[in-house]
Amino acid sequence: MAAQRPPASDPAGLASSLGHAAHGVVTDEDIRWEPSRGWFADLVLGRPVWFAVAPKAGECRDLYRARYRVTPSGQLLQVGTPYNVTRTPLGDDAGLELVGRHAVFATLAYGRIQGIGVLELDGIRREDRGDSLLDRALLAVTNYQSYGTTAGLGRTDIVLETPATVVELELGSSSLQVSLGANGRALRYELTTRQLRAGDGSQAFGATSIIHRHPPKPLVHWAVDTVRDVVGPEPIAWLEQEVFGAKDSLKRAAFALTADASSKALKAPGKTVEKLDAAALAKLASAWPPPPLASQWQQVEPGEGQWAPADVPFLRPSLAPPGKEAPPPYFYLTYVRPDARRPYAKLWLVAMDMRQLELAMQAGFEDPEPLTGPPGDGHLPDDPAVVNRVVATFNGAFKSEHGRYGMMASKRVLLPPVVGAASVIVTDDHAVGMGSWPKADKVPDEVVAFRQNLDPLVEDGVPNPTNRQLWGWQIQGKSVLTERTALCVTPAGQLYYAWGEEIDGPTLGRALGQVGCSYGMHLDMNPGHCGFVFTRVDDLKKHEFTVRRAVPKMSIPPDRYVRWSAKDFFYVMLRQPAPRAVPGTEFQVDGGVQPPPAWWPGIFRAQLDAAGLGIELLDIEPGRVDWKLTAGTAELSLFGSPPHQTALAGELRHRVLLALGVGTTTRATRYGLAFDGKATLALRGKAGTVVLSAERGMRIESAEQPPALNPGDEVVQLPLLVRDGQMLPEANAQGPLRPRAALCAMNSGRVLIARATTDSNAPLANALSKAGCRTVVELDRGSSHPPFIHRAGTEQAPSGDYETTVLYALGRSMTPPAFRWKPDGSAPSSRPTLYDIPAPRKK
Fold first, then answer.
1. Burial class (CB in 10 A: 0-12, 13-18, 19+), 218
2. Strand locations in 180-284, DSSP E?
3. How many Å apart are CA 585 and CA 606, to the nearest integer?
4. How many CA atoms lie within 13 A of 338 on its CB side?
5. Where are the alpha helices (DSSP H) in 9-61?
6. Strand intervals (E) in 683-805
7. Each residue's pLDDT tens digit, 540-585
8. Residues 6 or more apart from 134 whose CB is under 8 A from it?
9. Cβ atoms within 10 A of the Cβ of 666, count?
10. This model's pTM is above 0.70
């Protein structure tokens, strides 16, 4: 009698009452009832109903579940508490269908279907949760908070590697049929076995099924998260502040009473800690391990600031090819004591040699909580080609509720980027960049993964450049002393992971600047969440692995990221020395002299069979050579023009690894040349302009007009064969059968050369296009000289006297592929090509 008047028992009344309960808009076509459990249960407990809710008409929808009390005659009585099941505000959850005890839906975002969710309404399976009574009890409480039922919901996400434009779902009693609408491609998901196969029963390609597991969570972490959901973050922040503050006060008092004066003495005024100069450090790109770190204390502890190789016998060796010289260890460790008020507080550093290593990231099964599509799977990839190269894992960043900082993994955006946030990116050529996100809602098209958190701890050597006070969710204006972690990049192109047992945000930023980091990002904080774990996986499915914390005092469970992690994490892999394969062939180390270091090759060769034509491919990896240009003695020279540069300086001749002939221009072709930023033959339009610079290496411009030149630039113009991925008519032009060659330079700095004897340039252009080249030029300035590649250390060694114009590759110390990312183009390492993230697709 006290309840409100029931709604009208028709579709409009049902939709209106559900929308009112969920504070949104519901349409009658977005409502599905679960099977009835009998008239008494429907009347007293309520019959479960599913519905899609949009904040406003036409906006993206989330899926909700509620219980609606219904009379045996069908009269609606009262709707219970609605629970948001998907929580994807930037994704539109559509196509909901229920059959038996299963439900299915698709999530649309950015104009594409991101994934398909399959829900098991009877609850989470036994094999997907912990075994102990306590673990099951804790999960039951969490389930009730999230879904209104202690059994929870079982869930499997079908993630599409390439988001689709059209998906048709047909849910049956035993399987789900998925039609992707592209060339009849189909998938079949078995509801009982949870196996995903192609429509014809073969292996499924381009799609992965991720089962939501619920491994045990430490009691303290569960209690904090559960209470925070009930009372909000402020009381938990106050409690953390009080607990950590009391612990710090007690420890400082004990140290003051027991330590002698010499152990607490800083260096005398005027003898400040030497800060590593960024310019000097950048010159140490080939130096490994990093240089020693100075201490601010008069009494230096053993090993303080001295890098030592990680003594971890079970780690797999570097993948450098066997040779006369062995590669150095790829992990080094040391520690510093950065807090002038706490001489006992150490900050441990793990230095990673990115010449031998790669970085990747994975989302947890709870965090980041995605705004579009399904969450991550929370463990290392199942692919043996990946997991067998893993040598370390370490923690990611903050929970989504503490700031929805962006994350993208494997080209799938879970949270969109936050402008200005500290970011670490991984590119498609396995390089790692660190910098602040640009002032536009865009993602560089070569970025395959990124993670963000807070503002930078250090930027271009300046600690805390934004003067941030809140470093983690605690009392405003304070930065509590607790476990904290960070990731930073040095001007030398190496990455450091930092872990401190009791340190605040500002001190962590100052420490990173002191040890020579050019950019640093705060990762996670608090005990149990932080740690760097050396890892070797022998069989992921059988759980055969070996793990060890880098520092024994780290409190993180060492097997967390190998099994299942609720939160995101990073993993470190051994770098493959061979370049990215070209379809139809594999690269082998070239037999000539290699650039330094000798233990890591940088020039590779392959043979490609294209319709019976043998094409020779030469690959020069990024950061391994400097490029120089000389004009041939037979090169066209015009009266009154500046003289050509026809020879290399003496000191450069000793670094020559390769000489590449490009012929000479004619009065008919008139392809330009330039040295030191000045044209000696006028640059023309509608040509491929190869620009060589000390900062950016080799790049190819293909604009209609000649590019503007900077001081020091060297330029040679060549015929264009491919522009912006499109084959030009010149590539298919027929001519005499003769040796021909073509070249491309990718944004990453990788250079590829194709050579064959053929009557057109089409096979060469096709081969380079398949390798990923967007712009290709012919190595012939018009004279039809036979193109040549002379390699140091072979019978055809480079010469210093050529009648044709020549591109020289000079060996240089290997640059680690980690860089200070400045997407505004203000740094040589920036990658300015961007694409827009479109707005989420509306209903």
1. middle
2. 186-190, 196-198, 207-211
3. 7
4. 26
5. 11-22, 39-44
6. 688-693, 697-701, 714-718, 720-723, 726-727, 738-745, 751-758, 776-778, 789-791
7. 888 899 999 999 999 899 999 998 888 999 999 999 998 888 888 8
8. 219
9. 13
10. yes
